[in-house]
Amino acid sequence: MIWLSRIPELLANGPLVLVSVAGVRGSAPREPGASMLVGQDFTADTIGGGHLEWQAIAEARLLLQAEACQPLLRRYPLAASLGQCCGGVVWLAFEVLHAGQLPVWQAVSQRHREGLPQVRQLDGRAPASSWPESRGEGRLDLPATEDGPDWCLWQPLQPPRFCLSVYGAGHVGAALVNLLAPLEMRLRWCDPRAELMVRAPASVECCVMETPEEVVAQASAHSAHVVLTHEHALDLRLAEAILRRDDFRWFGLIGSQSKRTRFRQQLAARGIAPGQIERMICPIGVTGIRDKAPQAIAIAVATQVLQLREISIPA
Which residue, 264, 193, 196, 191, is CA-closest to 229? Predict the structure, then answer.
């Protein structure tokens, strides 16, 4: 959720509007819960693009100019009149966020980073979102009349189920993290060189690696791991630490077939069981891509990671 991770940063600089897909009937560009942020001269994240999004941005900026306080719910038929032919109907909720709400959204964003589920409740008659203790399902109660205030949105903010640790902040590691950061996953980026991670996207958890064993131990159970550091010796220590865990989901190591052969021998000499060593994927990345540029390698690895993530997310 890019929008959620960026609210604290952007709200500190002034008001903005949180636009959320509150409900959908039929075919639509995005699912209920998809959200974006709109400021006077920027946007963050997307509710699907196209003319619907342009209309939503225009509506949001009018609310900012009017210094509106109450949330709004708007109904958009996705027909020719809107320049879209999806054929469905989308309800969008608009909430103006003000600087005074910054501590609340900082806490919400922090809880999300910690993997805690939350529910946002936006009532048409209340000035701002509330956060009930109940963990109910998402839904939209429609107003009795087209523009009535008697509506309510429940938006679950579930932490990502797919967790990935990327070890290495070199050219490939940086390219890979920037490719994956906008997507729905819990992403950790680990390297001994803190200065290489200072420009990490807000949604990424950065870990300065003191020892490989410690940083691997801190990964969530059933995490995926990608190792691509600047030193083979560090790669080997990370590989050993990952393979000694029985609860990792997937482990990919950058390198050639010859590196795989050397590592298999060295890991066996360190007492790693043959069956565990076979779980190490090396080389990594989808096949058929010969380009060795860091960005090309990162795309090949990101594709492999997304294929793995699809297995982790129910349809």
Answer: 191
